[in-house]
Amino acid sequence: MTTGKINVSVENIFPLIKKFLYSDHEIFLRELVSNATDATLKLKHLTSIGEASVEYGQPKIEVKIDKEGKKLHIIDEGIGMTAEEVERYINQVAFSGAEEFLDKYKDSAKDTGIIGHFGLGFYSAFMVADKVEIITKSYKDEPAAHWTCDGSPEFTLVASDKQTRGTEIILHIAEDSVEFLEESKIKGLLNKYNKFMPIPIKFGTRKEALPKPEDAPEDYQTEYQEVDNIVNNPTPAWTKQPADLTDEDYKNFYRELYPMQFDEPLFNIHLNVDYPFNLTGILYFPKLAADLQIQKDKIQLYQNQVFVTDNVEGIVPEFLTMLKGVIDSPDIPLNVSRSYLQADGNVKKISNYITRKVADKLKSLFTENREDFEKKWNDIKIVLEYGMLSEPKFYEKAGAFMLYPTVNDTFLTLDELKEKIKDAQTDKDGKLIALYAANKDAQHQYIEAATAKGYEVLLLDSPIVAHLIQKLESDNENLSFVRVDADHIDNLIKKDDTVISKLSDEQQEKLKTVVEEIVPKPTYTVQLEAMDSSAAPFIITQPEFMRRMKEMSATGGGMFGMGSMPEMYNLVVNTNSELAERILNTADNDAQSKLVKQALDLAKLSQNLLKGEELTAFVKRSFELIKS
């Protein structure tokens, strides 16, 4: 029997581990199952290169609860350890066996999938156990060893009569951690962290129906057998080559990742790169609502099939964190507890690669089947618009597939839009004016006026559109975006021809005075314009600059303080309308006031601005006018 002290540089490392290193106690199971996986993959590698003369077979890892004995067992059939190796790897904290192994076999072991390079993973067991045992037998023909430690620096190491190759870790669960003796808890942890580990994990047994014999009688009763309950999928879709997967395979894997998600993904992007870093994964575009309140943290980050986190900001460009799926890379730098990313140049390289890969995939989808791409546009546009604003590399590529829908349900690229509107929508200064609406119903009157003149009107309704068009304008100096309700139609795209007012200057001044006395200030600024006599008498517009700055402030950006400014509108009075003349020619002040209020309220109604008391008063006044 050997006794001794664990070689650590502090008096007692275990409280330190328990309190600081691993903030989340539940990851002890992830670490121990990861170690068991490492041990198994090491053996696989050694047998494949002829350095281990044993039969690899079909090893599995077993997790077993002994509720009565208050013990949790993690058993593997891997490489095992000799007594000397136990002394070396277990008693010298932070000396990683996996790292030494990788170093020794660095050329041939490149793709073995061995996880460990932390060395402290085993000690996470002491977060939940007040005593830990290791019973292990090496693949080498040497006696088995039995190591025991009660959480102090003291340990015992004795020979064991274990006859089978591999390692068994026995955790004597502490009183404050008895939740880890519950089957549902362990099952949940295995599903969270080890769902896609590369070695089958057994957790209990299940009943499986035996095949019905061909000569079975009519009253045959189905027979069952007990089989291992394997809780993981050792070969998830992302570990396979895209050529070996069908569309149905990708959909099935999506359901496996998100069993409670009922919508099918729109499409997927399979990531696969081995230079200058290793990265595999599958990203799915789910259906997204046109708002920014989208649940993130739906992409899972793995390292050699071990779950690390679902907070992938940094490794995945921010605009893609709205997607779903899996990313797996052994080259992602993690802190020692494998819980979060460390700052590293590789992280930015990986992020740039993912951005490029997604852009390339979107371009190919657009090129190969534009009609299908257009059908999916409204479900993916918020991600792409956000990407154009936040990732310069994505913006560079997005021109090839970014679409701008029209109110007539057609879709144009920016180049197609410029070509289509250049004849009708170039103003007197030679500038292209792209008209757009944010809401087909609310701005119907303005859209109708624009389309009547043969203008193309886009439908840009996402919450970040103000930011996007600001960027597009800055990169296309001869192009301006103007919302259809920003001014009356003749002022939206100014031409050389002007309409002459029927009213004299004196009459116009009088009309303006009458309207200004009734219209509330400072919300409305009265503006007289000579328009076609068939155009609306009163039109409410909201200046493009002011409205856009307010929208940008509301979603982050724009000019400081603009978001808190009150709404301000222009009331455009058509001096060539019959109503303008009627207001001027009405001598009765009360009747004149009613006409102006009625016209104003009708204009407000068309902009969805008439509410509450004002709406009630408008309805009452309307009935009175009908009666009179």
Name the descriptors.
628 residues, Rossmann fold, single chain, Heat Shock Protein 90, stress response, 9-stranded mixed β-sheet, nucleotide-binding, ATP-binding, Ribosomal Protein S5, domain 2, alpha+beta, 22 strands, 18 helices
Q: Please, could you describe this protein's structure?
A:
35% of the residues lie in helices and 20% in strands. It is an alpha+beta fold and 628 residues long. A nine-stranded mixed sheet has the order 1-6-5-4-7-3-2-8-9. A five-stranded mixed sheet has the order 10-11-14-12-13, sandwiched between helices. Strands 18-17-19 form a three-stranded parallel sheet. Helix 7 packs antiparallel against helix 8 (370-390) and helix 8 crosses helix 12. The longest helix is centred in the middle third of the chain and has 24 residues, at 345-368. Mean pLDDT is 85; it is low at 94-99, 109-119, 335-340 and 559-563.
- Largest sheet geometry: 9 strands, mixed
* CATH class descriptor name of the largest domain: Alpha Beta
Over all CA atoms, what is the radius of gyration?
36 Å
Terminal CA distance reads: 112 Å
Secondary structure: elements and pairs:
Elements: E1 2-5, H1 13-21, H2 27-48, E2 61-66, E3 71-75, H3 83-91, H4 97-104, E4 129-137, E5 144-149, E6 154-160, E7 166-173, H5 183-193, E8 201-209, E9 224-230, H6 247-257, E10 267-273, E11 279-285, E12 299-303, E13 306-309, E14 324-328, H7 345-368, H8 370-390, H9 392-398, E15 404-405, E16 411-412, H10 414-421, E17 432-437, H11 444-452, E18 457-459, H12 465-475, E19 479-483, H13 489-492, H14 505-518, E20 524-529, E21 538-541, H15 544-554, E22 569-574, H16 578-585, H17 589-606, H18 612-627
Parallel strand pairs: 2-8, 12-14, 17-18, 17-19, 20-22
Antiparallel strand pairs: 1-6, 2-3, 3-7, 4-5, 4-7, 5-6, 8-9, 10-11, 11-14, 12-13, 15-16, 21-22
